[in-house]
Amino acid sequence: MYQIYTSHIHALNFYIPRLNTSRFSKLERTNMKGVSSISMSMLSVLICSLTVAAQESAADWYNKGLNINMPSLRLEYFTKAIRMKSDYADAYRARAAVKSDLGEFIEAIYDYDQSLKWEEHAEAYYNRATCKFLLGQYDDAILDFEEAIRIKPSHAYAISAKGCALLMQGKPEEALEFLDQALLLDAELQSAVNCKIEAIKQMNPNRNAHSIVSQSISVSDFEDKKNKPLNIKPTKKDAPVTEELNHGNATSTYLLTDATSLREGPDHTTHVLLRFVPGNQVKVLEKTNKFWWKVTYKNKIGYAKAALLKAAQ
Fold first, then answer.
1. What pLDDT score was predicted for residue 80?
2. Shortest CA distance to 127 belongs to which of 139, 115, 28?
3. Exposed (0-12), middle (13-18) or buried (19+): which is 285, by Cβ within 10 Å?
4. Last residue in a domain, options 239, 255, 274
5. Can you give the pTM of this predicted structure?
6. How many domains are contained in the chain?
7. Is the distance from CB of 130 to CB of 108 less than 8 angstroms?
8. For residue 263, what are the domain limits?
9. Do both 255 and 224 map to the same domain?
10. Is residue 301 pLDDT above 50, yes or no?
11. Any idea what the CATH number is for the domain that residue 199 is in?
12. Confidence check: pLDDT of 130 > 60
C-alpha cells in the first residue's frame, strides 16, 4: 500500500515543478505562481494524509477491532488486518468469534481453519468445535474438542463439551466420564451439570430429576452393562456463594487482565453482550460465585470471569 501511495507522490512531484511557464505573459506567470502555491499546499495535505494511511498497520486495524463493539465495524477492521497480513492468526480468530456470535457458524469455521494454518491454539480448536456442535456435526466437533484438550489438558469447557457431544450421539455412559472430569476441574460449570443430569436420566429414566439436582450428582451408584461400577469420582455439590466472596465493597472497580466476554448469565454458554479487552475497567455488583462475577460496563450489566478480574489500584 505504501509503495502505491509513494509512486503517486513521486509522479506529482515530477510534473508540477516541471511546468514550462516561459511562453506565458508576466501576468499569467504571476497568477500561475499563486495557483502553483495552492497546488503545492494541496499536495502537502495529500502527502500527509497518504502517509498516515500508509502507516496504518495490520496490528492497528486489529486493535481497532478489539476496541469497538459494533459487529459490522469489527468485521471490517479485522478484515483489513487480514488483507495486510495474510497469516494474522489472531485476526482470523477474532473475526471468527464475531461471526460465531452473529450465528454465522460456517463462515466462522472457515476463519478458524485459516487461523489454525498459522498457529495451533486451544481456543481456536474449542471455538471451531462449538460451531460444529451447533451445526449438529458431532463427530467433527469431538475431534476438535480433543485437540483443544491435547493442547490444554485442564480445559474444563472442552472436556465438558466433548461429554455433551457424546450425549447428543446417544452415548450417556461415555459422556458421564468426561462430564465428571470437567466437574472435578470446575464444580460449577453449568453446561456440564445440565448434560450430566440428562445423561443420568437417559441411563435411568425412572429417576426423578429433582432428586438428581438435589444430590451431589454422582453416578458412582450406576453400573455399566458388565455390572462393573463406573470408575468415576463423585463431584462436590454446587455450593452457594461463600462468605469470603461476599466480603468487601460490592461496587469496587476492577480491571480486566485478558480479553473475554461480558455474558448475560454466569455461564460460558449464555449470550455475549460485548467483548472486553485487557485494561477495561468494570464495577463489580456481585461476586456471584468463585468463577463468575456480576459487573456493569458501558451501561450494560452481565457476568465476567472472576479469574480475569483484578482490583484497580
1. 94
2. 115
3. middle
4. 239
5. 0.55
6. 3
7. no
8. 243-311
9. no
10. yes
11. 1.25.40.10
12. yes
